[in-house]
Amino acid sequence: MESDLYKLLGVTKTASADDLKKAHRGLVRKFHPDVNKDPGADARFKEIQEAYDILADPEKRKMYDQFGIAGVKSGSAGGGGGPRGAGGGDPFGGGSPFGGGGGQSWQNVDPSTFEDVFGSMFGRGGSRSARGRGFGGFEGDEEDEAPQAGRNAPASETIDFTTAVLGGTRSFRVEGESIEVRIPAGIASGTKLAVRGKGGAGAAGGPRGDLIITIHVSPHPWFRREGDDILMDVPVTIAEATLGTTVRVPLISGSVQLKVPAGVKSGQHLRVKGKGIQPAKGAAGDFHAVIQIEAPKELDPAARELVEKLASSLPNPRMGAQWNL
Hints:
Elements: H1 5-9, H2 17-31, H3 41-55, H4 58-77, H5 111-121, H6 128-131, E1 153-159, H7 161-166, E2 168-174, E3 177-183, E4 192-195, E5 211-217, E6 223-226, E7 229-237, H8 238-243, E8 245-250, E9 255-260, E10 269-272, E11 287-294, H9 301-313
Helix pairs in contact: 2-3, 2-5
């Protein structure tokens, strides 16, 4: 053992009982074998306990200050150091409160020390089942249990494409309760929205948890999304693609008059800037009209004759080297 017990506990010789208790708590947190797995922790812990046992007892401390450790051992051998033996004055029967034995004396340790030290060590703020019974074998009082927030509750909801793009408010029914949820503009499928205070109930007066809603966006019959851009297939005839035309095209909100240039190709994008999705932050996306040239499946004889005449005057589009088979 350290020759100077005061030094071992990290206090001065004028330390008060409160100073000793505070120092002891800190050292127990650091060196208790259930927490500190270093090889020398167990021996160090026993020294700390013996030092505290001596200095926390006024009679033993007086003997130690006058005669050193030899004087204390001499006094205790004669039975003057207070009741020891099997549980005499020792709330843990002379052993560790964790059943580890070791013969450490705990007779002068304030029971609150163990609540303060080991309660924080093993989760005083945890659930009642995790904390179990308090030190000393008595069930902890209800008022000692800290308030705990309730668990978050998962949910899944589907919204339409237009609401996802423009945003708005939707009413969802979750476990019989109607909940109003604000949908931000431009929300993507798979996004999670938190509704505060609509989850599981808290414990010991703690607040409710949150409702976590995973949003799914249903497909639109005309529009599709790529990032913040909105795309729509716009069909045109062979004549319109050849000669050019003007088409009124629907948008998510309103419509636009779109000029289709002569000679447009199938799959070509005609962009309308800023008419896509407007996110909460950043610039709006664009609207893309994707041209699809549709050839008629059936023609009357007169129309067929006109197309055949036209075909003979059109250039062959397959003139590259890859077509020389």
